[in-house]
Amino acid sequence: MNFLLSLNKKAFAAFCFVFIIFILFVFLLTYYTSTNDSKNKININDKSSDISEPKFSINSKKQKISVTAREGNFLTEDEIVLEKNVIFKSNKFKIYTDNVVFNKRTLVASSQTKSKFISNNTSIDSAGFDIIENGNIINFKGKTKLILK
Amino acid sequence: MIKIVIFILIIFLNYKYALSRNIGETEITTEDGIEVFQEEKYYLLKKNVEIISDEFRLNGNLVKIYFEKDLYDIQELIASSNVSFISSVHNIKGKGEDLKFNIQSQEINVSGERSELFLETTEMFSDGSITVNNLVGSFSIEGPNSKLISDDILITGFMINGTLFNQNGNREINNLEVKDENLLNIITTDTEMFSKKALYDKKKSIIELFDSVTIERGGEIITGDYGIFDTNKNAYKVTSKKSNKVKAIISNTK
User: Of the residues A43, A130, B49, B177, which has the maximum number of CB atoms within 10 A of its CB?
Assistant: First the structure.
């Protein structure tokens, strides 16, 4: 006899029900944690920012990367935290994220938040990134997924 | 009720695959990020790298990919640290410490200890390097413990070079050149051959043996300076430069 037919249907249904509840619980927990994090972030940002809609650029011989955000706050004389809708844009790519520390003297940008890189037929999702050497090197950090079309 | 629960279960268990890459796309995942060098035109994929496309699948710990214009425009792939790959479309699979693949020349090189590369009916092994050029139809196995297995023949030698021809979608061996200063070894179903150099010609169905030749079959051992083995007739002939050395002709037609 088929093994599946020999299973107790009620017991199997009960097991599946518990399993689905467990999966939903995991999803809800993940969602709750992420929303809680964003609430904390909003609380931090409640204060008025040092710069609204800051704009910078990273220039090299071969390309110009413009950096825009909704808010900017000075960490030190040279370091600025760019927050909310931070976009790095060159003629070859765009990087979207929500929090970047940008050094306007060394032109080094560093993000520890989820980032999305979009270029011609290419997308990269990572847990953060560093832009160094005037934009020549982009280091996508943590678990990273690259899709080539 | 049961059917609905099973349906939901199937959806839950497969949602990851449903959200993964589309047809024609290449998906690359890494544990420790990607470094993109725009001027040098390459990117480094770090730790537990997995590359999945319609044509092949590759796993490695460090992968360097050279590109031409943009990241998708891949020219060359260099993978290191326990690399394995499989391409069901091109009927090729292998593994080794390092791998180099050039897209334009369609040349694949696997190197390091216990390197392996399998084609349809040909298996290649080496502790040195294995190179197959799909465009030209050539291959090279070089280094210690280099070995080639194809149909009913097993060849070991320090250097095994050859060409392939395509017959009904199967890549088969056309010519072979084998060299080993410490004696190469060729084993067929009932004969074992040793020499320093050997040439194989598929069209002529002949294996030629040069220098320090020994042919063993059954209880017979024949030695000389030159040997010729007819794979069709299963017959061989051994000759020597010096007339006082052993010289033999033995025929054993199937």
Answer: B49
